[in-house]
Design brief:
- It contains four helices and 18 strands.
- By secondary structure, the protein is α+β, with helices and mostly antiparallel strands.
- It folds into two domains: 113 residues, Rieske [2Fe-2S] iron-sulphur domain (Rieske Iron-sulfur Protein, 3-layer Sandwich), CATH 2.102.10; 213 residues, Naphthalene 1,2-dioxygenase Alpha Subunit, Chain A, domain 1 (Alpha-Beta Complex), CATH 3.90.380.
- Strands 11, 12, 13, 14, 15, 16, 17 and 18 form an eight-stranded antiparallel sheet that branches. It has a four-stranded antiparallel sheet with strand order 5-6-7-8, with no helix packed on it.
- Strand 9 and strand 10 form a beta hairpin.
- Helix 1 packs antiparallel against helix 4.
Length: 339
């Protein structure tokens, strides 16, 4: 069910410390910590002897001492000391998972270590641009399969019913959608023309009157979502060419990491092309986003409960084209990974 040869966010950079911390990623248990030199480490969370979680042990410098019989595991996963004997069995080791730090997150590779390429981590445009503002974002755990969330993040239409007090505005119900299929994933988008900006964005845009609005919903493999909202004065919206200089752009980066088949760890932050140093605006955006994502949580966890007890197949609608195509392409990659 999971694409292992891919990068997933496992934690925020400042959440990985010189402390043993247990995580579950793609159904596998790992332990993480930082070495004395600051390098993050991720190992399978099971002592090779009796399988006690290493996260229940103790850090000794850069090594973990198991809390059961004192076996010592180094940061590569190799056992380097057994108190009760001088010889160390060849099998006395655990898997180490490659990590990379980028964009304020720690990324993990749960697949074949020989195929690791940090350059394939998602590129974030304008991340270091001093003219762009950025929220720190947050993290939540959703009690639903991660593909239910990718479905949601490839579905601009749900905004009209789920987010009526925030993202919804005229045109969200029935403006036709366009879909693009690419090697990296699937994008669905539309321009909604000459409408009032939605309540969430109205205080943020830098012009008066109606707007042309671009909804750009993109999900890349394995489960990284980019939601771009563009608001430009009515009559200036255009997918091709340069935007009006008054255009307001907000990009929401959403990183979905499966914990297991029924739980997902959801990381996010927002990026905007205005007010880089305005802490009040940043706080307002963060608060509004958290409220909107709680609306998503309520629906998506309800979807999971409904699927669990469903006695019939889902009815497929036209708006499902992009989510279904993403699932199909992901399954093709997972099948290829299985060999």
């Amino acid at each position: 069910m999971f694409l292992k040869n891919a990068w997933y966010v496992v934690a925020r950079t400042d959440d990985v410390t010189p402390t043993l911390t247990a995580h579950t990623i793609l159904g596998e248990n790992i332990v993480m910590y930082r070495r004395d030199d600051g390098t993050p480490v991720a190992l399978d969370d099971a002592c090779p002897h009796r399988k006690l979680p290493l996260s229940m042990g103790r850090l000794q410098g850069d090594h973990i001492e198991c809390g059961y019989h004192g076996m010592v595991i180094d940061s590569s996963g190799q056992c380097v000391h057994i108190p009760s004997q001088t010889s160390i069995p060849k099998k006395a080791k655990v898997a180490a998972h490659p990590l990379a730090e980028k964009w304020g997150f720690v990324w993990i590779w749960m697949g074949d270590p020989s195929s690791v390429d940090p350059s394939t981590i998602l590129t974030i445009e304008h991340f270091d641009d001093p003219g762009w503002g950025r929220t720190r974002g947050d993290t939540m755990i959703l009690e639903t399969n991660y593909l239910n969330i990718t479905d949601n993040l490839l579905d601009p239409s749900h905004v009209a019913w789920v987010h009526q007090s925030s993202f919804a505005a005229g045109g969200c119900e029935d403006t036709p959608l366009e879909v693009e299929i690419g090697q990296r994933g699937v994008t669905v988008f539309r321009w909604i023309l000459d409408r009032e900006p939605p309540a969430y964005y109205a205080p943020l845009v830098k012009f008066e009157g109606n707007c042309d609005r671009l909804q750009h919903y993109e999900v890349r493999f394995p489960s990284l979502a980019i939601n771009k909202s563009v608001f430009t004065p009515a009559g200036t919206g255009n997918r091709e060419g340069a935007l009006d200089p008054r255009a307001y752009i907000m990009v929401s980066y959403n990183f979905l990491t499966p914990i297991n088949e029924r739980q997902t760890k959801y990381f996010w932050f927002q990026h905007r092309n205005t007010d880089p140093d305005d802490d009040a605006i940043t706080a307002s955006i963060s608060k509004g986003t958290e409220a909107a994502f709680e609306e998503d949580r309520r629906v998506l966890e309800g979807v999971q409960r409904g699927l669990d007890r469903a006695g019939s197949a889902n009815v497929v609608l036209g708006i499902d084209r992009a989510p279904i195509r993403f699932r199909q392409m992901l399954e093709e990659k997972i099948s290829k990974q299985r060999g």
